[in-house]
Amino acid sequence: MNPNVDWSEAPVDADHWEMTEHGAVWATTGEVAGLRDNGEEFVVNALFPCGDDYAPSFGWPHGQMLDSATPRP
What we know:
Helix content: under 10%
Number of helices: 0
Radius of gyration: 14 Å
Shape: elongated
């Protein structure tokens, strides 16, 4: 988690901030449904970028994606 995220800069629909391989993004949580090879259905939660713009890094090192997902307080 990045304790330096300034949520006043976040889009209204953003519920997470995270660093990706391309830069920081504001993200929203959603569900992804799928079908396993054995025909069993599944649903997982995933983060989806909000809009087309990147977010500020708030001091998080570019490329350091692990543990970057920061939920909105």
